[in-house]
Specification:
globular; disordered N terminus; 26-stranded mixed β-sheet; 8 helices; 4-stranded mixed β-sheet; 48 strands
Length: 1009
C-alpha cells in the first residue's frame, strides 16, 4: 500500500485561509454605535457549529472557518436575534452587526422570566426539562410585583448586587466584562506544512510500462498577527488590523507518454510502413519507402527525444518530469469605527507566483505572476432602518511568460525556416502537428501582460416593516495591457496529403521528412496592445416577508458591458459584402467599410445595451405546521466577458500584423523552408466578427420541494432549467467538403467568422436525501440527472480557436468551428459538460455521541474513544461527450481540425489492448461530402472517486488544543481516465488521453493557543 504522509504543525489560531481551505472571519457587534460585549456569535455550516463571544470592544473572531457559505447568528439578552448567510473566503470583509431591542411587550416578558429565574434559583439547581410543561410551571418562581425594578435590573450584565462577579449567582466567565485570565487583545501565530512523495502511490502510466517513481516535496509556511492598533497620544483608539504572510515551495511530478520518430525513421527509412508513400513532384512511389530528408526536418528532428519503450503497443517514449511552483502571499486588513454611525474597513492582498513547467521534449517554460488586490469600504447609518454602503476595489495582475528558447537559441533561423518572427524573445521551433498521433512539437510564446480593474460600487438598504429594499449601482473600468505575439513562430500541420497517391493515404511523418506541410498559419506584429472596457450595472431588490409562511425576493438588474476598444485604434475586422462574396479590412482607427460603406464604432462591434435582468425567488410553506417548504425562482444573466477573446484576434491582423492561414496547393506551394507566404486564394486576415454581435444571456428557473422525514431525515426534490440565447458560433465562410468543386472561386477563404446565433438548453432533476446529525451520525446523498444540448461554440469551456492552436490535432477535435457553414443547426448536440448522471454521497460519524457511540464512557477509555470524526465522500458519474475528428485540411484554407469522419455502422465502443473506441465504426468522408459523425457523439469514460478523512481535537487545557487530521484522496487507488483520444486518423484513437491522480495520504497537525 503506497501512501503519502503530510506533516504539519500550526502554532496559532490565526492561520492562513489557503491552508486546509479555511479562512479567518471576524467582525463587531454594536448597539447605537457602541460596542456590545458578551454577545454570542454562532457560525453554522451543515452539521458543524462553532460559537464565540464578543470581547470588550464587541469584537468576535473565528480563526479558521472552512471556505463556503456559513449561517451567522448573533444573540444577546433583551435584543432581537440577528441572522445572515455569509460566504467565507480569504478576502471576506468584516461582519457588521447592529443590534435592535426587542419590542416593549416582548422585552418586559423576557426580563421578568429571565431575571426572576436568576434571583430565585441557585446556580447549582437543575433547570426544568423542556419537554415537561407541568414540572416547569410548578418550579417557576412568582414574578415580583415591581416591574420597573425588574426592567432596570434586567439590563445589568455585571456589577449589581445579585449579579456581581463575586455573587453566587454570577454569570460564567468570559461573559460580558467577566474575563478573568482571558487572552490579550492581540493574536498571532506561525504555521508550517511539509510533505513529500516517499509514500505516494505511483502515477499511472498511459504506456502500461512502470517507470521509477519520482521524488518531490512540498513546503508551506506562514505567519500572522492581528489586533487593535493602539499608539498612546497618537492613535489611542486606532483601527483593528490583521497582517499575514505565507510562502509555498512545491514540486509536482508527472509521467508523460508519446510517440516519437524511430531511429530508422529519422534517416528517412519508412520501409516498415504498410502504406506506400509517393513523391509529390513525380507522382511515383519512393523506392522501398525511403524518402529524402530536408535540411529543415533534419534540424527539427534533433529536438525529438529517442524512443525508449519497446514493450508498449501505443507509445514508444515515456519520461517523468518535475514542475515547480513558488508562491508568496501577503494579506492585511484594517477595520475602524468612526463615531456611532460610520464604519470604515479595507484590505490589501499581494500574491507572487513563479512556476516552471516541463513538457515531453524537456522544454522548460517559466511563468511569473504578480497580483495585487485591495479594497476600501465605508458604511453610514441613517437611524436604524437605512444603511448606505460604498466601496472602491483595485486589482492588478502582471504575467510574464519566458519560453525555453527565449534569447537563447534561434531554432527556426538555424534550420532555415523563413517568414516567421525574428525577435529573440520569440526564438524557438515552429509548432508541428501530426494526424497519426506522433507527438506534437510545441513551446510557449513569450508574453508580458498587465491587467487592471478599478471598481466603484454604492448601495442603500432600507428596512421597513415587511420589506428589506436594496438599491445600488456598480462601475468597473478594465484595462488589458498586453505585449505578446499570438503565433510568432508559426504552425505546420502534416496529414499525409503530400505523399498520398491513388489509393494511398500517405503518411504524415513522410510529409514532414521531405519538408512539405499540408497547412500553415502564423500571426505576429503589433505586439503591444492596450485594451479598454467599461462595465456598468444598476439594480433594485425587495426581500418581502409577505406573511410568516411566504417570502418573496424580487428584483430588477440592468448590466451593460461596452465592447472592448484599443487605445490607438489598432483593431482590424473584415468589412464583408452580403453572402461573404468579398471582404476588405476595416481598422478601428478608420472605421469605415470600403465595401459596404458602413460606419463602425472604434471597437468595430456595435454595443448591446439590452441587458435587462428580472429576477424573483419565492419561499412558501403551503401547509401550516408542516415541514413542507416550496421554493421557486427565475432569473436572467448576461455574459459581458465575451468581448476579450475576439479583441485579441482583431488586434493581430493585417495590415497591422502578418496573419495567415493557408493550405498547400499548386497555386500556393508550401515547404518547411518557405511555408508562411501570402496566397491569392485566401484572405490576409484569418478572423472576423459580426459587427452586430450580441451579448449572450441565460434564463434560469428552479422549483424545489423540501420535507422532513422520520429518523432525522430530510428529502429535497429539485428541478432546474436553463435556456441560453445569443451563444457564440464560429464557422469558415465559403468552405466546401474535400473532393468537391469550389462553388465560388472568387469568394474570400481562410478566415473564421464569429457570430451570436447559438442556443442551448439544460434540464436537470436532483434528489437529495440528508440525515441530520443524530447520535454522531450524519449523511447526505445527492443524485442528479441532467441533459444539455447546444449549438454554441463556446459553451462548456471550449473557448475560441487561436491561430496557434487551430491546426492542433493531438488531442482530438475542437468543436468551436462548425463543420458545415451552411448548416449550423447540424452542430446542435450534447454539450461538452453534459454528464447525464451524477451521484454524490457523503457519510460522517463522530464517536462518543449517544449511548451507542460510547457517550457514557469515562476516564481514559472515554478520552480514547470519543470525538473521532470519520468522513467519507464518494462521487460517481457517467462520461462526458467527445467529438470524433478527421484531421485533414479544408480546401483552400489552413484549417485542418473541423472535419468529422463518417459513420460505418459498426459499434463505436470496444475494450481491447488499452483501446476503448472502435476505429472501424468510422470511415473517410465520401468525396465531396461532409462527415456524418455527429458533434459530441462519443461518450467519454465514467468518473469515480472515493475520498476519506479522520479527524480529532485533543484539548490539553482551556487555552491549548491540538487538531489532528488524516485525508486520503482516491483511497481505493482506482484509475479514472479523463477522456479518450478522439482523432480518428490517429494511431492512438480510443486510447486514454490522461488519467486522474492516484492515491495520496495527507496528515495534518495543528496546535492552537
Amino acid at each position: 500500500m503506497l501512501l503519502k504522509i503530510k506533516h504539519a504543525v500550526f502554532f496559532a489560531a490565526l492561520a492562513f485561509s489557503s491552508i486546509a481551505g479555511a479562512s479567518e472571519y471576524h467582525g463587531q457587534v454594536s448597539f447605537g454605535g457602541f460596542p456590545v460585549p458578551g454577545a454570542t456569535v454562532t457560525a453554522t455550516q451543515g452539521t458543524k457549529k462553532i460559537a464565540t463571544i464578543t470581547d470588550q470592544g464587541g469584537i468576535y473572531s473565528f480563526a479558521d472557518l472552512a471556505d463556503g457559505k456559513w449561517k451567522i447568528e448573533v444573540e444577546m439578552q433583551c435584543f432581537a436575534t440577528l441572522h445572515a448567510e455569509v460566504s467565507i473566503a480569504p478576502q471576506t470583509p468584516a461582519g457588521k452587526w447592529e443590534l435592535a431591542l426587542l419590542p416593549i411587550d416582548q422585552l418586559m416578558v423576557h426580563v421578568k422570566v429571565t431575571q426572576s429565574s436568576i434571583l430565585a434559583r441557585p446556580a447549582s439547581a437543575a433547570a426544568p426539562k423542556k419537554n415537561d410543561a407541568a414540572d416547569a410551571n410548578v418550579n417557576k418562581p412568582k414574578t415580583p410585583d415591581d416591574v420597573n425594578e425588574q426592567a432596570a435590573d434586567g439590563f445589568l450584565v455585571n456589577g449589581s448586587t445579585n449579579n456581581a462577579a463575586t455573587s453566587q449567582y454570577a454569570l460564567s466567565q468570559a461573559f460580558g466584562n467577566t474575563r478573568t485570565g482571558s487572552k490579550g487583545l492581540y493574536k498571532g501565530g506561525v504555521s508550517a506544512i511539509f510533505d513529500n512523495s516517499s509514500l505516494d502511490a505511483r502515477p499511472y502510466s498511459l504506456s502500461g510500462v512502470e517507470t521509477p517513481k519520482p521524488y518531490y516535496d512540498h513546503f508551506t509556511g506562514g505567519i500572522a498577527f492581528g489586533g487593535p492598533l493602539r499608539i498612546p497620544h497618537l492613535l489611542p483608539r486606532g483601527p483593528d488590523f490583521f497582517v499575514g504572510y505565507q510562502w509555498t515551495r512545491n514540486q509536482t511530478a508527472e509521467t508523460l507518454s508519446g510517440i516519437v520518430p524511430t531511429t530508422e525513421e529519422r534517416t528517412g527509412n519508412l520501409g516498415s510502413l504498410s502504406t506506400t508513400v509517393y513523391n509529390p513532384t513525380t507522382g511515383l512511389p519512393y523506392a522501398n519507402n525511403v524518402v529524402p530528408l530536408s535540411s529543415q526536418a533534419a534540424a527539427l528532428l534533433q529536438l525529438f527525444p529517442a524512443a525508449n519503450l519497446t514493450n508498449s503497443s501505443l507509445y514508444n517514449y515515456e519520461r517523468t518530469v518535475l514542475d515547480s511552483s513558488h508562491q508568496d502571499a501577503m494579506e492585511t486588513r484594517l477595520d475602524k469605527s468612526l463615531g456611532r454611525r460610520d464604519q470604515l474597513w479595507g484590505s490589501f492582498n499581494l500574491q507572487s507566483v513563479r512556476a516552471a513547467s516541463t513538457n515531453l521534449f524537456a522544454f522548460v517554460d517559466t511563468t511569473d505572476t504578480l497580483g495585487i488586490n485591495t479594497n476600501i469600504n465605508w458604511e453610514h447609518r441613517f437611524g436604524h432602518r437605512i444603511f448606505v454602503n460604498s466601496a472602491y476595489r483595485f486589482s492588478r495582475l502582471r504575467t510574464l511568460v519566458a519560453p525555453n528558447f527565449e534569447n537563447r537559441e534561434d531554432i527556426s533561423g538555424t534550420a532555415g525556416i523563413t517568414g516567421n518572427d525574428l525577435d529573440s524573445a520569440n526564438w524557438g521551433p515552429p509548432a508541428l502537428n501530426f494526424s497519426s498521433g506522433l507527438t506534437s512539437l510545441s513551446d510557449a510564446n513569450s508574453a508580458f501582460n498587465r491587467s487592471r480593474t478599478d471598481a466603484f460600487s454604492a448601495s442603500a438598504s432600507i428596512y421597513q416593516r415587511k420589506h428589506n429594499v436594496t438599491v445600488g449601482a456598480d462601475l468597473r473600468k478594465q484595462q488589458h495591457n498586453d505585449y505578446f505575439q499570438q503565433n510568432p513562430r508559426g504552425t505546420f500541420a502534416f496529414t499525409g496529403a503530400a505523399t498520398a497517391g491513388t489509393g494511398s493515404t500517405g503518411f504524415d511523418l513522410a510529409d514532414f521528412l521531405i519538408g512539405v506541410p499540408d497547412t500553415s498559419s502564423i500571426a505576429y506584429g503589433n505586439a503591444d496592445k492596450y485594451f479598454r472596457q467599461s462595465v456598468y450595472d444598476a439594480y433594485a431588490t425587495d426581500d418581502w416577508r409577505v406573511m410568516p409562511a411566504l417570502t418573496i425576493n424580487a428584483g430588477l438588474r440592468w448590466e451593460y458591458g461596452a465592447p472592448i476598444t484599443e487605445v490607438h485604434g489598432r483593431l482590424v475586422n473584415l468589412d464583408l459584402a452580403s453572402g461573404f462574396t468579398s471582404a476588405a479590412a476595416v481598422l478601428g482607427s478608420d472605421p469605415v467599410g470600403s465595401i459596404t460603406g458602413n460606419h463602425y464604432p472604434s471597437s468595430l462591434v456595435r454595443p448591446d445595451r439590452t441587458g435587462v435582468e428580472p429576477r424573483i425567488g419565492i419561499s412558501w410553506r403551503p401547509i401550516p405546521a408542516s415541514t413542507v417548504v416550496v421554493r421557486a425562482g427565475y432569473g436572467i444573466y448576461h455574459d459581458t466577458s465575451v468581448y476579450l477573446a475576439p479583441a485579441l484576434q482583431l488586434a493581430q491582423q493585417a495590415p497591422l500584423s502578418k496573419s495567415l492561414s493557408v493550405a498547400n496547393s499548386t497555386a500556393c506551394p508550401l515547404t518547411l523552408a518557405n511555408g508562411f507566404i501570402t496566397c491569392s486564394s485566401t484572405t490576409s486576415d484569418n478572423f472576423a466578427i459580426d459587427p452586430n454581435f450580441r451579448v449572450g444571456y441565460a434564463q434560469t428557473w428552479q422549483l424545489s420541494v423540501q420535507r422532513d422525514l422520520p429518523e432525522a431525515l430530510q428529502l429535497t426534490a429539485t428541478y432546474l432549467g436553463v435556456k441560453g440565447t445569443h451563444g457564440v458560433q464560429q464557422f469558415l465562410p465559403n468552405t466546401y467538403p474535400i473532393g468537391a468543386t469550389n462553388p465560388c472561386p472568387d469568394c474570400p477563404l481562410g478566415f473564421v467568422y464569429r457570430t451570436s446565433g447559438g442556443n442551448s438548453t439544460r434540464h436537470a432533476g436532483q434528489l437529495q436525501l440528508r440525515r441530520r446529525l443524530r447520535n454522531g451520525f450524519t449523511a447526505s446523498m445527492l443524485y442528479t440527472w441532467s441533459k444539455s444540448l447546444d449549438d454554441d461554440a463556446q459553451l462548456g469551456g471550449q473557448g475560441h480557436v487561436t491561430t496557434s492552436a487551430q491546426n492542433d490535432g493531438s488531442s482530438g477535435a475542437t468543436a468551436s468551428i462548425a463543420q458545415n457553414w451552411h448548416d449550423l443547426h447540424a452542430e446542435r448536440a450534447l454539450s461538452t459538460f453534459d454528464q447525464r448522471q451524477l451521484l454524490n454521497l457523503q457519510v460522517q460519524y463522530t464517536s462518543g455521541e449517544g449511548l451507542g457511540g460510547g457517550d457514557s464512557l469515562r476516564g481514559w477509555r472515554g478520552r480514547l474513544v470519543k470525538e473521532w470524526t470519520m468522513l467519507t465522500k464518494i462521487s460517481t458519474g457517467s462520461g462526458l461527450p467527445e467529438t470524433p475528428a478527421y484531421l485533414a485540411a479544408i480546401s483552400g484554407t489552413g484549417f485542418s481540425n473541423i472535419t468529422r469522419p463518417s459513420l460505418s455502422g459498426a459499434k463505436i465502443y470496444t475494450n481491447s489492448a488499452g483501446v476503448h473506441l472502435n476505429s472501424a465504426a468510422y470511415t473517410v468522408p465520401t468525396s465531396g461530402q461532409w462527415g456524418t459523425a455527429g458533434r459530441n457523439s462519443i461518450t467519454g469514460p465514467g468518473q469515480f472517486s472515493l475520498d476519506a478523512s479522520l479527524a480529532r481535537t485533543f484539548r490539553s487545557s482551556t487555552k491549548y488544543s491540538l487538531d489532528a487530521r488524516i485525508d486520503a484522496t482516491n483511497l481505493l487507488n482506482h484509475t479514472a481516465f479523463s477522456g479518450w483520444i478522439s482523432t480518428w486518423n490517429s494511431s492512438q484513437f480510443g486510447a486514454p488521453s490522461a488519467a486522474n491522480a492516484m492515491r495520496s495520504l495527507q496528515t495534518t497537525l495543528r496546535l492552537r493557543f
